## 1
Amino acid sequence: MDTIRPIDPQHTALAEQLKADGVQYVLGGWIDITGRSKSKVVPISHLPNLLAGSERYTPRGMGDLGQMTPNEDECVAMPDVSTLRVCPWDRRVAWAAADLVFGGREPFAHCTRSILKRQLDIAAGDGFIFNLGVETELFVFKPESLEDPEGYLRPLALSGQLKPTQAYDADAAMDALPFLEPMARYMEETGFGLFSFDTEGGDGQYEFDFSYAPALQMADQLTFFRLMVKQVAKQVGLIATFMPKPYTSAWGSGHHFNMSLANIETGANVFRDEEDVRGRGWSKIAYSFVAGILRHARSIAAVATPTVNSYKRLVPRLSDGNVSWAPVYAAYGDNNRSCLLRLPHNRPAVENRGVDSAANTYITAALMLAAGLEGVRLALDPGDPIEDLTYDWARNGTSPSGGVRLPRTLLEAIDAFQEDPLVHEVFAGEFISAYAEMKQAEWDEYHSQVTDWERSKYLLAF
């Protein structure tokens, strides 16, 4: 089978070494809009061919990548050998992140990894490295939950049903070790730099915290992480989901971005400055980066909170009346967790709390970086940080400190996405139209359904 590059003898030696270690198959995972890794399964002896570009795909329509058109050229998956790792939950298989190359000639417009790489090149031209840490949350539950008429997801153990919340409970964490322990071990083995994991607010909800990295490396790690989570959960008889709000009374699952810029020459973080005029230790670059993201927050929502379900999380309060801990206003605060952006005291990074667990990390990071860099180039200033509990703004219907309300629905977010000139700089026109059409169809399908809530509310009322 033809390849688009010559076969590298070093890759032949790599295949032989992996085979001696027991690896039988390799995945060259390209990423769809939902962040899922897609790939053919290649025998280990064929690894040199795979790395040279032997595997072709017709990806449109198969991974939420636009409409399938059978008369166009194929894409070639080009794995990045630096990301190659053995899957520790099944050592017969190795995985690498791949770019999709249209016709073997140019980056595919819908290749989300290539979209991020382009923005990182722009940042490098401005003299910056974009570093990213992600706090990602998920639910793990018993399969019989799928039969629950109320949609409740039963956790691994009864200890995970504490009220008002299981968050940080040591007993619940220890009872969940059949899932958490292999995850922690495999993350350590594959270089995540895991430093903690815990039970989150929802029943059976967990978070893993690990080292930040350059943004492309972090996005690749998270793609591998999602594959790992689902496989490990199945091995212990459970199901994992990254759905942002899996049932009405559940806590939402976030995917918080912790972003920073570093000097490309020295590697030094440029977000700290002890001479900060506001006396908080942040640089003008950091404030301008914040201002750029706030400026484009409504359009960023289309990729950071990309589903109909996402907006069930972006509400001021949970169904029990407690605050949701998810942002509803595009505002920033000094350690204020009710804002979209937070400037934490313990790390030189800007935290975006709006991103949820359904987000594709590649395209979310690409648009967020572009917005932040625009703010830096224009020397924008976000004003003073917000100290108010912004959930009270939503309750009162006012934002006295000038915060802009984030989209309330996917439809609002997609409208903002299409109208934002920056979006048209970051994404190809065909990506924008395909993404908007896909999400518009998702909204229309949802909006056309008559729900149980509507029947209960209206059936006998009129």
## 2
Amino acid sequence: MNAKKRLALVIDDDEEMRELISVLLESLDFEVDMVTDGIHAIELTKDYDVIVLDMKMPVFDGARLADYWRLTVPDVLRRVIVLSGYSRTTTPHAEAYAVLSKPINHYEFIKIVEECANQ
């Protein structure tokens, strides 16, 4: 059987968060790429099934990256799960698939990832 491997991209400046999310995604049989800032994800080189995007990063934050994608490849936003460390996130990114607060609930995260990948 030659099933297509599901692909995920994690964009977060926090190494521990990247590792945690990677482990969760790999447990769902995703191949995971990780980058430390939005500047490294401006041009996507793969067709990701799920993109986990942190809002607060030092150089090119999640909001700026989502704005860029909105102008250049808006369809990608339907694969984005936004993570925010703020309980009252005021993200203007209604196009994103979901917004989750940090710290993440592992069960909720897994459920949202599966729903996002299967849409």
## 3
Amino acid sequence: MRPLPRVHAFTDAALLAAPEFGIRAAAIAAGGPAVALHARARGSGGALLASGARRIMALARPPEAAVFVSGRPDLAAALVADGVQLGSDDLTPGDARRVFPHGWIGRSVHSVEEAKAAVDQGADFLVVGSVYDTPSHPERPAVGLSLVTKAAALGRPVIAIGGITPERAAEVRAAGAYGVAAIRALWLAPDPAAATLAMLSPWMGDA
């Protein structure tokens, strides 16, 4: 398996269908192997997710950015994606591994109990959040940096999500995060390529 990327750019159905999606995806993918683009389209069915994932893979190839698929290990396996990201309503990491034997399997968690369960079920990494308040999930209270630290102590890489901005990346790293994930701060940035590099900057020089 290739190293787990540090910066994860999650999509949604609206982004996948946006006219400027290709330009923005290419700009984010220019960050190279340290970046992962996530094909994600909750509630939109498999067709949009599959077409979005294929398009992302084509855009990610020249700079060798990684491609992850959310919620569908079968689709990730069919497309030979680099990883799959699971939510609480998806298959367990162990069950997903039977379908997707080669690649990273992550699990979204919102508490220490969920993080421990995900590790016990075989998750390779944890997506922890929402760390800060975020308009993407206004109904979900922020868990704060303490959960990042506690989850990292379980021995799996932690990707912090929720209200993450380039300005907050350094303090998230200091709390123990292996990397960060975002939607708005990357895809809707005036300069997505610059925003990606700014997100990555606290980890520059790390192996």
## 4
Amino acid sequence: MVVSPSGQIDARPGGGPYNAARTLARLGAEATFFDRLADDAFGRLLGERLAEEGVVLGVPEPTGKPTTLAVAALDRAGAASYRFYLEGTSAADLGYEMLRKSLPPDVSAMYVGALGLVMEPIGAAIERLVVTDVPADALVLLDPNCRPSAVADRDGYWRRIAGIACRADIVKASVEDLAYLYPGVPPSVAAGALLDAGSRLVLVTDGPRPALAFLPDSVLAEEAPSVTVVDTIGAGDAFGGGFLGWWTAHGLGQADLHRADLVRQALKAAQAAAALTCTRPGADPPTLAEMKARNWWP
């Protein structure tokens, strides 16, 4: 639910991996969304939007619990602050066995993160799935997308993020995420800690400022295209989806993450996807045609 500075309320389908799945599909990837949708009006709307984009619903059985709700309050510059209604809602209602049985055997990449890592039982299910069931050669991108107001147990949350990060090939985080996970530590030091823990690449976003890519032996920076911002909802999700979409569209995988030249091109695509998302209300990621029309798809 998006609340404008004037008090206007607008219902917009969204959520971190949901937005990423739609981004990937719009950029030409075959995407499957893994979460539980509700058997209510909002749940049906969410499912219809996924179907329109060609996203497969990995867990088709709906739940009788109500749709999970985020309230995004916009300031005059279009930046959003969030509050969440999570307890007893649909997104949390997914256990490990159902998730494991729904995992495609030919999965080549997985995008994981956001509020799914906070709620139960889905949080524990995701952690177990990533650590024990995702194929070793599948590329895993972790976007913690930290929402401190939704975290009841910070230590437990940190252990979950750290456990998944050890398996993740790519960690995508904002400077705010890193400040929450590594308080008092510069983003470059936090990124170095994630690399030391096992990640091959750490992507750091900072609003309109350049995005950084930390590799074990180098750091890359990429400016964001200049656009007129309507709001920032879903921009980070489009960034992660844009990076992964470009990477997989070019047939790249884990073994290519050391290639700085390729990382830079994917970083450009990610910045462009995020920028275009900011030009319209809600989480509305760009299509491949839009990216190509602006020469923003390297």
